Amino acid sequence: MAKILYIGNNDVHTTSHHRATALVRLGHEVVVHDPYKSVATVLASKYLSPFHYRTGYRFLQSKISNWIRQIIDGVDGMDTIWVNSGELLGPECIKILKTLGCPIILYNNDDPTGKRDGRRFNSLLKALPYYNLCVVRLEKAENELRKHGAGDILRLHMSYDEIAHKPFNSPEDIPAEFKSEVAFIGTWMRNEKRDEFLLKLVSAGLPVSIWGTRWSKSPLWNVLKAYHRGGSLGGRDYVAAMQGAKICIGMLSHGNRDLHTRRSVETTYAGGLLCAQRTSVHLNMYKENEEAVFWNDEEECIEVCRKILSDDQQRERIRKAGNEKVKQLKVGNEDICAAILNRLKS
Question: Which class in CATH covers the domain with range 171-328?
Fold first, then answer.
């Protein structure tokens, strides 16, 4: 088994932490260092955080490079370096890591070559040539990454975590405050029109529940706040809300050029019924109306929700079939991490 230096967000509710613990479950020795903690004060600032985000963290590179030098002075015998996200690490940071003499993996499930996040990933893009393997989400175009110097590229589905997203043994174990009819779990995003979509569902009489942050920024907040049941969910609360809903609405970020998201696999693994936008990736993952349900617009979503809510037996068949299918897809963190390390060996 490998000794891995893992550089990524180590908050217990992050997918970065989930992947690090999945590597441990696979038998590897994992040494985790969180780059966000090295600049935590700056990133907590109301004014400095958006400035650094919009400038691609270029003005933090000296501080982060010094942090990395301190790390490598205290480690030895590493077989692999795994960088999660990589948004904070520019070329100099990766060059310093290379002095450890082992291959470096970049895992990024955002859209670093897209336009939605402005210059956020500028430092990352400059560092791409120095990674031995770049792992990105399935729908991201290799040619865009190669324009920035990326070498070996591996495209994979988004993943769920076998432990963090494990469903409750019985529906009776789900706390009542997380049970609902039609749930949407996610953040309000400017220009994505999620609020307009949900308002149409509400106006059609569907019993909608919303969990997530930033919804008070929506121009439609005065109407939607009656359906907002809480902020960001993590841990067992997150699983409870997915499993406790009769239908889980899965939205994409069009600015992020999504064809599937983490919810596409976390929902079904956690025991929820996925009701998402119809895309080529979703249709390749699940049989429509058998393992998940899909829609093209608000009107079709309303029709689908009404039909599913009125048929308990069909809803339960789809929910169970979706749960079985997502496990067959081999997109758990342990499967994904093993595939990445195997690709590095080859």
Answer: alpha beta
